[in-house]
Structure formats: C-alpha cells, structure tokens
Amino acid sequence: MSGRLDATATEPALARRLGPWDATAIVVSNVVGGGIFFVPVIVAGLVPDPRLALLVWLLGGLLALAGAMAYAELAALRPRAGAEYVYLREAFGPLPAFLTGWTSFVAGFSGAVAASAVALTEYLGRFVPAAADVRAIVSVPLPLGSLVVSRQALVALAVIAGLSWVHHRGLGPGRLLQNTLAILKVLGLAAFVALGLGIGAAPAAGTAVAGTTTAASFLLALVPVMFTYSGWNAAAYVAEEVRDPSRNVPRALAIGTAAVIVIYLGLNALYMKALPGAELARLEGGLADAAAERLFSIDLAGAVAAFSVVSIAASISAMVLAGPRVYLAMARDGLFFASASRVHPRFRTPAVAIWMQAGWSGVLVLSGSLGQLVRYTGFAVVLFAGIAVLGLFVLRRRLPREERPFRAWGYPLAPGLFVAAALLMVLNVLWREPGTSLPGLGIILAGVPLYFLVLHRRRAAFSEGGRE
Fold first, then answer.
1. Distances in Å between the alpha carbon of 449 and those of 97, 98, 270, 301?
2. What is the pLDDT of residues 204-230, one digit of tens each?
3. Full-model pTM
C-alpha cells in the first residue's frame, strides 16, 4: 500500500458515459438475485396471512426506497466513486470508511461475486453436467486450507474473468452487457408474473397455516426481506461516471428501487396463487419450479434454469461494475494499494481494481470458503448502509449551507426509520445468530489494526519523501 493521497492530475479521469437508464439497470440487476426464489418460503412460515406477508414485502420495499433516497442526496452532494466509503469518510472520518471498504473487498463484493459465480455453474450444470462437477482435478495444500481446482471452479473462474474483462474494456461494452442482461431479467420475470396471474390455473385452496402472525414474527420476517432488497444503492457507486449525477443518480435509485418493489410484490402474489395456504411455508426445493408446474401443469425446470443463469450473470456483472469503484476511492486516499487508483488511459475504467477484485474472488472460489465468509459478513451490508444513511443527518447539521441538488424524501422521518430498522436488524442477527455474526464482526474489526498499519506506512513514506 502507499502513502498516495489522491490521483495525480496527469492521470485520466473516469468517463461520464452512464445515463439514468444505465444506472437504473445496475440497481435492478444488483437487487434481483437468488433471494426472491427462496425467501418467500421463510416469510410464509413467519407470517401465515398472505395479506400480511405482502405487507412485509411492501414495507421492506418502502424502507429500501427510504434508504435509496438518502443515498440519492448523499450522491448528489458528493458525486464520487465509492458510495458509502465516501459518505462515511465525510461524516465520520477515515476509519469507518476504511472498514466498509475493507469489508467490501474481503467479502461484500468479492465474496458475493464468487458465491454467485458458483451458483451460476449449478444452474448451468442442468444443461452441461460437467460445469457443476465438483470433483477435484488438482488440490494445492496451504497452511490454513487448500485450493481445489475442479471443473465447477474453472467454469466459475471463467465467468468472473469474462465479466471482468468486459467491464475492463470500458463503459461502452460494459453498459451494453449490463443493460442487455437487465432487460432479459426484467422481461423474463414480467412474463412469468403476467402469465401466471393472468392465465395460470389456480390450484384448490390449501390448508391454512397453523398459528397467527405476531408483531415479533412480522418484524422477524422483515429481516430476510430487507436482505433480499439489498443492492438498491448500486447506482451510487458509479456516481462519478453518471452524466448529470445530481439529477440522474436520484432518478436511477428511485426508479430502480420502485421497479424492484413491483417485481417482488408480483412474484409473491404469483407464489401465493400457485401454492396457497400452508403449501408455500412447507415447500422444499425450487420455488419458481414448483410455482410454474402448479400453474401451467408442465415442467419448466429447464426454462427456469436458463433464466436463472441470465439473472445471476446480471447480478455478477453489476457487482463487477460497482465494487472496484470502492477500492479506487480508497486508493485515492492512500488506504489501499496505490495501483488500484489507476484509470486505464484508453478505456477510462479502474482496470487494476477490477482485476484485484476478480483475483480475490477467484481465490475464494478455489478455497471453498466463500459460502462461510458471505454468511459471516452478510449483516455488514445492512450495517454500513444504516451508518451511511445516519451520515445524512451528520452532514445536514455540519454543512447546513452547502448546496444540495437533491434532498431526501420524507426527511427526517423516512431516513430515520431506515436507520432504526437497520439497527434492529443488525442487533437481531447478532442476538439470534451469534455463531455466524460474531465471526463476521471479527472480520470487520480486523480492519482496525490494518487501518493503523496502513496509516503508519503512509506516514513513513511521507517522512522518507520529505527527507529526500
């Protein structure tokens, strides 16, 4: 790492080539992942009444929208690459900002990219069985484990490398790929919902779920729902590359989050029609497969698998685009490897940061530890988003006269509710799942000594430069 504080004026800048629909596509692709295909089963078990279950999904969406609008004000105020890294630095200082960046690199983006790439190979394995073959070809022992090369790992690595290469080549091919995948994802989901609700055969009413919905179970159901909505802030990471960011980033965050709310409510209504009563809560196996078979009386497993490949590829693409902007921002502040601040002179992308993320994601794929790592640090997504929205209150008070091209809707109530919900969710996870959340908290806090080590080396580098 380096003592470099910022990119030099001689280096090329990131290109402002993204429009509002490009940024919206990033939001939709980042949010709509695998969660919507299994979380409704969890919610149905906690909230037996279908109307209340839909209310949980609506409330979760509105909270996500409140967070998105807070990010919209922050992004318009500081239209820089990096999203919450920048917002935490401005509101709370460099240490909290470093911790969110450290977590993003170690697990938040890299781990999610790796886990999604492996999940993609499992669906691809329905068409090409070798793609999901986990038998080891080569195993390299290491002090803390081993790196296992299998056919599945090779396919996952190829997916990560291919998408990283596209985004390395510039925003032109990157946004074309992202928009295409996002459009295919939305069209596929819209067709599924429209056909299922419109012409799908309604099964006989199922047995009502035993028990009633309590306030505790309702709030508990909100936790996985909010995790399923995570990713609503994706457009903020690329604010530095969006044209007229003070206008277009808020628009993308609002439209993208609203679109996801509509998609999620439609899918849940479809699931409840296909699997009424207790059936949804008791379901084992693929939710989309089961719903399609009940509504259309045909096996659509192949079509669902093909759609899943496209959907997961869109999510990976969005994370490959967003994550490296965090490391770029850190490197500009001298808190990451200096090379990560380099912008490719021709393609105008953070090329080194893109390949750093791809490399670490590849290590996680080969180590087989990615699932555990993502489970450990999953709550950090909500934790740092809540702290970033809290930063909105700090910056409103600290910089009352600074021009704000966009102001968060419903301030202070809406962002305040988001912060409160995020706090309750994090405390709930720490209390109910200490076996996974406490090690995750340890991973986050491991960044504290690393931060001071980086700070010490940066000061030492400055001192040596001064003596010269």
1. 14, 11, 49, 49
2. 555 555 567 787 788 888 888 888 898
3. 0.90
